[in-house]
Design brief:
Layout (H helix, E strand, L loop, with lengths): L2 H6 L3 H14 L5 H20 L8 H14 L5 H15 L8 H16 L6 H11 L3 H4 L5 H4 L4 H8 L5 H14 L12 H17 L8 H20 L1 H4 L3 H11 L52 H6 L28 H31 L2 H4 L21 H6 L3 H17 L1 H4 L15 H22 L3 H17 L8 H10 L8 H16 L5 H6 L9 H11 L4 H17 L1 H4 L3 H14 L3 H22 L10 H21 L4 H11 L4 H4 L4 H14 L5 H14 L9 H14 L5 H20 L1 H7 L4 H13 L3 H16 L10 H18 L4 H14 L3 H6 L1 H17 L3 H11 L5 H4 L2 H14 L13 H17 L3 H13 L1 H14 L6 H13 L8 H15 L26
Helix pairs in contact: 2-4, 3-5, 4-5, 4-6, 5-7, 7-11, 11-13, 12-13, 13-17, 15-17, 17-20, 20-23, 22-23, 22-24, 23-25, 25-28, 27-28, 28-31, 30-31, 30-32, 31-32, 31-33, 32-33, 32-35, 33-36, 35-36, 36-38, 37-38, 38-41, 40-41, 40-42, 41-42, 41-43, 42-43, 42-45, 43-46, 45-46, 45-48, 46-49, 48-49, ...
Pfam families: DUF4042
Protein name: HEAT repeat-containing protein 6
InterPro entries: ARM-like (IPR011989), ARM-type_fold (IPR016024), DUF4042 (IPR025283), HEAT6 (IPR052107)
Length: 1053
């Protein structure tokens, strides 16, 4: 059929399929008929691919059709096999193609059988088809693929047989690369690890075999590019498979990142991991000859006149100096006369040069992936091989800085900068140990000094590259790398000149023509200033000595007041907000200007992104003001009157208009978040109409259709219920609860989480003044709150903790004791059951901690627990389970705090002795730590258990002494040790409970002779714990004048 007919007939695919079925049913189909069918399919799919698929054609029908083609083409029919491979290659490249597991298995099995015939004429078509097919996840997961790509696979064997680099080698490596490329967020664990290992080995082998090959062979360059691309893919998706080969991979990357650069000789050596800072030793140079690379000499007092002024000013090492400030020379030396080369020669030379640079770029991209995706502990052994060393007497060695400074390709320099940034971020904990000693003496070089010299070399190299770079894209990447360096380098322990030179070099680029360069430069200055805001020397660099003002803030404010582009305005707003947050002292004189400019930009700018950033900047300013208001008056940089005036302007001329107008939801959410930073001290001083407006806006936004706005507004209400002028307003609290309770059941997790937090704050407010507030509330107000808290405590995991906290407080403030079987009694029964269950179950320890906290609150409601004594048993049982089995020591500390709320011995009944035995056993077994991270809380837990024991001693009766004597005898040594540490840790004002316990124990022993022998022994043991353990520290707890220790126990003398 002619191609014109194919184009006009949308049903042609179906007709071909019907014809194919007829051929399948024939036992001896006509070969010419099959060939004609295959030719038409090639023409059809080629045309569909060119026209990006005809709408009338179903791509899945095409897949079914070509899968049936595999059944009519025999493996020994070479030309038909080639046509079939071409058809499959075109179909698989159509958009939105999906393969089933069955079709994938069928295709791979067919290819395996075809490859076994070893027909070299059609091998290229087969491999091209396979290269496209392995892009699909279903094909990667097929079992038959191991016969092709496994360690003894058909294709891998062909790769081993090839003696020279040719097109077939390139095609096989392309298949391996496509197999390792796993895009998207799919689960790739089902991909064969053996095939991945084979791919890695073949990539490394090809790179090692061609170390000394001719760099002008284009096929060789394609092979190198594909190998590094394949290794990059394995680092991204199959990092664990690369760990065994890191030595070779890193060594190859260091070799090939300088591939093709004239005058940069380097030998390939696998890089072995080392715990030492550097593994390379300086080479001994023959002093009778002029070495090509000079040793670094200490700077002389008189600077050379011929030294480049820029390098002299920055202090760069000699081997980093360059005569030209731009990279305009080619890597490969060519004739000085362009007329000597024809146009075709120049084009060939340019292609060769680009291919060589792509090899270096791919090697560096692979390094970036390795640094980013490998575990930190894996990278720690290799970082020294990729960073420069500036220590005295060291020979210059190649590092990531070398291509940054010397490569003529912009892409390579950018790739090297990305790799350097990734490495610095990965080894940040190690770099934090750097500390420079200017006048160090002695032969021993500490690790901190070595790290400092490395950091200095990196920073100086980046400074030099800024001065030499002319490409805007490379400049942006340099500034991004400097921003990373500013984040990870400990400048407070390094020469301050590093920061001053960085500021000095970066500042001129604030006036660069490229706005992206301005943004990148501004981000470096922002990080330098805001992350080191406590360093007076660094802060002084951003102040104009003559005017005494911050030039960085003035520059950003000028850009905001003017007409700047979108990214530059965003960065300026970020600078303003971060400066206000990190150093209010510097921003204090600009706050009025900042607030006015940001509010004006918020209301006048038409770009929603800039408006959102304005709202975020106001939130940072508000948070900084709130932090100042919490300080003492003498320590404040902003007076309360100034803060009030600023907030009046922010609400009237900024946030109110945004929240009342039909704004976009993200902007409203940020405006609500900014409103939440007012604070109680400022709110109570605002004019009455603004306080009413604040409440109206917060309540109104809580019913917004957007979840983000609801979440921000309910968080604002959570702050508002704690304000001094609102926490006694029954009407406001009632309105707030009506907004909070429905949002606890919101489908959006963030809304429900913020609502539960607001409910907890509302509970704290009611707890402070429960009597007067509850009298003004409706009768069912507290019951509704308890029911909502019960539901929240059983809701999503992250919502439960605040719901449990609120539930404990609500039950605590119940004053009216319900009758047995009433709805209120059933509700309270359910509430206590929920609290007890949450304390004893679950792996989310924050919930269990809050449940123990809630138990402590409920135990304070003596009236309620007296009427329902079985509730007391349920709460105490849950606390004892925590002491016995909870692996988290912070939860046990919370349980011990809950025990401190026990006040009446008669309510404990038989539980009293059980509590004692559990606490003693918990103290004795406290050394059994399964998780070492809990060790930091061990001492605190033991002290709190001892404190709980002191509380129990104050409730002890004479009848309890007989039952406790044997237990105390058993655990006496453990108790004595921990009580000694506990009493030693107390301050004098914290001894009240210990003194009360000591006095109560003495009273139990009065009058003398009124106790049995075992009771008297128990009194003596408790007295020893409290007196002997503390007598050396606090004489306030003095022992009795006549002390006689009698220990009587069955079987114990």
């Amino acid at each position: 059929m002619a191609l014109s007919q194919i184009k006009s007939d949308g049903n042609y695919l179906n007709e071909v399929h019907e014809k194919l079925k007829l051929l399948l049913n024939k036992k001896n189909a006509d070969p010419d008929e099959i060939t004609n069918l295959l030719d038409n399919l090639i023409a059809l799919f080629f045309d569909l691919k060119r026209r990006e698929l005809e709408p009338s054609v179903n791509v899945q029908d095409a897949v079914i059709l070509v899968s049936d083609v595999l059944r009519i083409v025999k493996q020994d029919e070479s030309f038909k096999v080639a046509k079939t491979c071409q058809i499959w290659e075109q179909v698989l490249q159509l958009p939105n193609v999906n393969l089933t597991n069955q079709v994938s298995e069928q295709l791979i099995d067919w290819i395996v059988e075809v490859l076994k015939h070893e027909n070299h004429l059609i091998l290229t078509d087969i491999l091209s088809c396979l290269a496209v097919a392995v892009n699909f996840k279903e094909v990667k997961q097929t079992k038959g693929l191991e016969k092709v790509l496994g360690s003894s696979g058909l294709i891998v064997n062909k790769l081993k047989e090839e003696q020279e680099i040719n097109n077939l080698t390139v095609l096989i490596l392309k298949i391996l690369c496509n197999f390792t490329h796993c895009s998207g967020e799919k689960d790739w664990t089902s991909v064969s690890k053996d095939v991945i290992d084979t791919c890695i080995i073949q990539f490394i082998k090809m790179l090692e075999q061609n170390l000394n090959s001719d760099p002008i062979n284009l096929n060789l360059l394609k092979v190198l590019i594909l190998c590094f691309y394949g290794l990059e893919n394995t680092f991204v998706r199959f990092t664990s498979s690369t760990v065994a080969h890191l030595e070779s991979i890193f060594g190859l990357a260091r070799y090939y990142m300088l591939f093709g650069i004239a005058g940069q000789p380097i030998k390939y050596i696998p890089i072995h991991p080392s715990s030492l800072p550097f593994v390379d030793l300086p080479l001994k140079l023959d002093q009778t000859k002029n070495p090509k690379v000079r040793k670094k000499r200490p700077p002389s007092k008189v600077q050379s006149k011929n030294r480049d002024s820029n390098s002299e000013e920055i202090g760069i090492e000699v081997h980093f100096q360059t005569k030209n400030k731009s990279w305009t020379k080619n890597n490969i030396p060519i004739s000085s006369s362009d007329s000597e080369l024809s146009d075709s020669d120049m084009q060939s030379h340019q292609r060769l040069k680009e291919a060589q640079s792509k090899v270096r770029s791919n090697a560096l991209k692979m390094l970036s992936a390795a640094f980013k995706f490998c575990e930190q502990r894996s990278v720690m052994g290799y970082w020294s091989a990729f960073l420069p060393d500036s220590s005295q007497g060291q020979v210059y060695r190649h590092s990531l800085v070398t291509p940054i400074l010397k490569d003529s390709s912009v892409k390579v320099r950018c790739s090297a900068l990305v790799a350097l940034s990734s490495l610095l971020q990965t080894i940040q904990p190690t770099l934090a140990m750097a500390a420079y000693q200017e006048n160090r003496t002695g032969a021993f070089i500490p690790l901190s000094q070595t790290l400092a010299e490395t950091v200095i070399a990196v920073q100086r190299s980046l400074i030099l590259s800024v001065s030499a770079e002319q490409s805007a894209s490379a400049l942006i990447q340099i500034f991004k790398c400097l921003a990373v360096a500013a984040t990870v380098f400990p400048y407070e322990k390094l020469p301050i000149e590093l920061v001053s030179k960085t500021v000095q070099v970066c500042t001129p680029f604030l006036e660069n023509k490229d706005p992206d360069v301005k943004v990148a430069c501004l981000s470096v200055l922002r990080i330098l200033f805001c992350t080191r805001s406590t360093n007076s020397n660094i802060v002084q660099m951003f102040n104009d000595e003559k005017k005494g003002k911050c030039w960085l803030l003035e520059h950003c404010l000028a850009l905001i007041d003017g007409q700047s582009g979108f990214p530059l305005t965003l960065e300026c707003l970020l600078v303003i907000g971060e400066v206000a947050r990190s150093n209010i002292r510097v921003a204090q004189s600009y706050l009025q200007h900042i607030v006015q400019s940001v509010c004006r930009k918020l209301l006048t700018d038409q770009d929603s992104g800039i408006q959102i950033r304005c709202a975020k900047a106001l939130a940072l300013v508000g948070a900084s003001i709130l932090q100042e208001m919490e300080k003492e008056d003498n320590d404040q940089f902003i007076s309360r009157d100034e803060a009030i005036q600023l907030w009046i302007y922010i609400i009237r001329y900024g946030l109110a208009d945004v929240l009342q107008a039909p704004s976009i939801p993200p902007l409203k959410a940020e405006a609500c978040a900014a409103l939440a930073t007012v604070g109680s001290q400022i709110f109570e001083c605002l004019p009455r109409e603004l306080r009413i407006l604040f409440v109206t806006l917060a309540l109104g936004c809580s019913v917004d259709a957007d979840a983000g706005v609801r979440a921000a507004s309910i968080r604002t209400l959570g702050f508002a219920v704690t304000f001094n002028t609102l926490n006694d307003d029954a009407s406001f609290l009632l309105d707030s609860s009506e907004k909070i309770l429905p949002l606890l059941l919101d489908s959006n997790l963030l809304v429900a989480l913020n609502a539960s937090w607001a409910l907890g704050n509302l509970a704290d407010t009611l707890d402070k003044d429960k009597n007067s507030l509850l009298e003004e509330m409706p009768r069912d107000f507290l019951s509704n709150l308890i029911q909502a808290a019960v539901n929240a405590s059983q809701g999503p995991m992250k919502v439960r903790c605040n719901g449990i906290r609120a539930l404990g407080i609500f039950v605590k403030i119940v004053t009216n004791v319900p009758t047995q079987g009433s709805e209120t009694a059933i509700l309270l029964e359910k509430a206590i059951s929920v609290v007890a269950k949450q304390a004893t179950t679950g792996n989310f320890m924050k919930n269990r901690w809050n449940a123990c906290y809630a138990c402590g609150n409920i135990l304070q409601n003596i009236t309620l627990l007296t009427a329902f004594s079985h509730w007391m048993d349920k709460l105490l049982d849950s606390l004892l389970v925590v002491f016995r089995s909870c692996p988290n020591f912070k939860v046990r500390i919370s349980a011990a705090n809950a025990v401190l709320n026990l006040k009446h011995r008669e309510l404990l009944s038989n539980n009293y002795i059980k509590i004692w035995y559990t606490l003693l056993d918990s103290l004795a077994n406290s050394e059994n730590i399964d998780d070492f991270s809990e060790f930091q809380h061990h001492e605190t837990m033991c002290r709190q258990i001892c404190n709980a024991m002191c509380k129990l001693m104050t409730l002890m009766t004479k009848d309890d002494l007989s039952q406790l004597q044997e237990a105390v005898m058993k655990y006496y040594d453990v108790c004595s040790s921990h009580f000694g540490k506990f009493l030693k840790s107390l301050l004098p004002e914290q001894l009240e409970q210990v003194i009360e316990a000591s006095n109560h124990i003495r009273q139990l022993g009065q009058p003398i002779g009124s106790l049995t022998l075992s009771q008297n022994s128990a009194v003596e043991l408790f007295t020893e714990l409290l007196v002997e353990s503390s007598s050396n520290f606090y004489p306030l707890i003095s022992p009795p004048q006549e002390k006689r220790c009698v220990r009587v126990s069955s079987g114990i003398p």
